[in-house]
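Page 47, continued from p. 46.
Same chain as before, 87 aa.
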Amino acid sequence: MIRVTGRESRKMGDANMQSDALLTLGQTALAIGGGLLPWHLDRLCARDAVPYQRAGRLRLIRKGDLDAVRAAAREAGYLRAEDLAHA
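Result:
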């Protein structure tokens, strides 16, 4: 069993809810695109700039939080300039 902890931890509830699906930092970076890399997300998590959960050593981001993560990445300057218009 995976124990989820962290600043935004909460009961997992219905695992079938799409917005509650958990993504790794790599999956989150691919979903957002725009040149965002997993280490960018790692830094945002370390600064508590994005909501995340922990499962062991992994930092996980809820699929429903992608807009907040995209906004934090944009504010930090982690998205490529040419992709800012499309994000």
